[in-house]
Design goal:
The chain contains 8 helices and 15 strands. The strands form 3 sheets. A 5-stranded parallel beta sheet has the order 2-1-3-4-5, with helices on both faces. It folds into 2 domains: 219 residues, 3-Layer(aba) Sandwich (Rossmann fold), CATH 3.40.50.1110; 134 residues, Jelly Rolls (Sandwich), CATH 2.60.120. Strand 4, helix 7 and strand 5 form a beta-alpha-beta unit. The N terminus is likely disordered. With 361 residues, it is α/β, with parallel strands linked by helices.
Amino acid sequence: MNKTMRAALTQASAAVLALGVTAQVAHAATVVDCVGDSITAGYSLAGNQSYPYQLSGMLGGGYTVNNYGVSGTTMLKNGNYPYWGTSSYTASLRSNPNYVIIALGTNDSKPYNWSAHGSEFVGNYQSFISSYTTLGTHPKAFVCFIPPYYLPNFSQSDFPDPSRIPNLILPAIQTVVNTTGAPSINNYNPLLNHQSMYTDGVHPNVDGANILAINAYNTVTGANVSLLSGANINDGSGPWGGNQAHVASAAFDRNSTTFYDANLSTGAWDGIDLGSGNTKSVKLICYSPRYGFEGRMVGGVFQGSNDKVNWASLAPSITTSPGDTYTSITVTGAPAYRYLRYYSAGGGSYGNIGELEFFGK
């Protein structure tokens, strides 16, 4: 990464930091610091699409989530761009965190970093964790098993062989977990064999970032919610113009660039049937709009039912146009339901929704 791009990203992170710390002082929120490289920073994503931004929406107003990601950085103190020397590292130490999510290692895997200093990785990581856990707030530090990368990618001289992550970096991180007793977050397995969730072979797209955010949400809160799945159910009107790319099931493919576009202008709906004898209580809803038609979700509502006739709202209806990212709704006290759906009540909305995720137990 060139210096100009690196400086721009550092400045963007600093702006996020300032907002996060201000909120923390004003509201005495629980502070979550997301520390890492470009995957944390949200390289190639809009600012509201990064995993820390999505995590902030999931956690809600009782938390301040700071994005301290710096592109290109290493855990290795003797790597080509050590995180240790960044202003973001200094700022994170001063932010009085309660939780720290550490996601470094991708850039350490670069051949010129690992061949020269790989033996130093575990010791450097142990010291890094200690630099946080010995702070006055005694934060809990989570160690992330980093995501895979793929070929082709944007810089194959730096990232020539995807097996370097599971063969070199993950075992070293496991040693860190074993020796420190630090709790861990597995960001590798959920993105394995999901190259479509990447922008350039190395950096997860908004859908991949959503998975990282869910992992962090479960770890920080202890909610341990799971993505609910089932057979698609819908209004039966079919896709607009018979376009099979825009069928109702497209809203459940974990690809926010696909979407449901119904023949029915108003009152279209799209959901899942968890199956006979299977009911779950929804705890979290994540959704993404049809990009370019975000306003069509205004008036929409998420509902549950046990007979597919009588539907109860899981949360208030959508009142403002969502952004071009995942929006999260925390659900409390919902009964267990077999059928779950998004009802598109807005006039001329055509059931448009890009992606819909119900999480529960």
